[in-house]
């Protein structure tokens, strides 16, 4: 695991660059590889997995589901489930933003002079 500026991260620079490349893909096998790497990071971190990794994992799962819908007979059910997954991803991302903002405000108002 890499460690920079006192932060513990569950990946190497090679893994990070690979995920950055695969995350933008629209090919099933590349998205599955990305998901496998993200799952590996989650297993390395356990309960202290950063929310950004969890959200990325969720977004890749949604992208895979979108690709699978095209070959489904029951599209309407899968589309509804996909809408729910998108909602979950959005809520998680908003949660990250709110937590970051509250941490910044807490630090700003409670710092010692």
Automatic annotation (TrEMBL):
GO biological process, any: rRNA processing
GO CC entries: Las1 complex
UniProt GO molecular function: endonuclease activity
Pfam assignment, any one: Las1
Highest taxon in the source lineage: Eukaryota
Name of the protein in question: Uncharacterized protein
